[in-house]
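PROTEIN–LIGAND DATA SHEET

This sheet pairs a single protein chain with one bound small molecule, 2-acetamido-2-deoxy-beta-D-glucopyranose, given as SMILES. Inputs appear in the order they were entered. The predicted three-dimensional arrangement of chain and ligand is reported afterwards as a token string under its own label.
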Amino acid sequence: MNSLLPVILFIYLHFILTMTKPTLTLEPACKTRCGTLDVKYPFGTGPGCGSPRFHPYVACSPDGTQLLLTTHTGSYPITSISYADSTLTISPPCMSNCTSMQPAPPKFGLDWAGPFQLGSSTFILLACSSSTIKGNPICDPSSAYLCPSIYTCPGVVSLGLPLFPPTNSCCVYSPANLNSNVELDIRELKCAGYTSVVSLGDLPTNPGQWLYGVALKYTLGGLDSYNIAPSCRACEMSGGVCGYSPPRNYFVCVCANGNTTTDCYSYSWIITTSSSLQYSRDLQLGILAIFVFFIVI
Ligand SMILES: *[C@@H]1O[C@H](CO)[C@@H](O)[C@H](O)[C@H]1NC(C)=O
Ligand SMILES: *[C@@H]1O[C@H](CO)[C@@H](O)[C@H](O)[C@H]1NC(C)=O
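PREDICTION REPORTED AS:
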């Protein structure tokens, strides 16, 4: 009996060590943060994370610093997300603001089949030809007061305008509509630049304090909201990240110790990789060791 004891202890120790190993070495495939943003369902930081409907559009940049929305016209850094209101704000790199105005920006577009639509921010078209403005119903006369403010920004000279230009080349495009290609095409509208304002802050006449960005709404599909969301809430509350497994895209909860079909408290590990196979083999070995230990005693 005494000669068996070291063997049993060795097996038992091996079991304890391998139990804790996955936590120390496995980097979860899906992250809960990207740059400064909390990333939760339906968004994900990479393939297999979040909802499959959102994956082709939203992912964390390869260096991990920015969550990006990618459409057929480009990639746009996401600057904020409100999960409660299903809205987010993006910052197109060629959009003008008070400190920096950029002529001839490329088209800004969304994808027709994607889950995003324009939200409540206000587009202002800058340095437009007079034919765009005159009597054009796209320009909202009730918001025209924004034009004298934005035209106090010294950046207007970058658009080929004089300092403090007359405001008859400025158009508050509200409500904004994307064209039939789901794009805002500044050249088609015969303007030199555009900006988009999310909020005016405390001083509506001080464009230096405005919050610039394009607000978007997103919609969860029927499948997302009814089948996946209940399991997803339990997964997120247990410290996991909601994901999906191609090709059939069934729900997975991505945990530090591996993936499950429910939440991170569950032991229903999906055994797919060699490391998780190792995990379950050592678990069996450990149970066997305890069993042998009791028999010997
Ligand atoms: C867990 O799920 C993620 C996302 O779907 C995937 O990238 C990863 O390979 C999975 N890990 C295992 C061990 O199956
Ligand atoms: C203004 O635009 C420039 C160029 O895109 C950007 O670097 C800067 O952060 C923006 N400033 C504000 C206040 O949004």
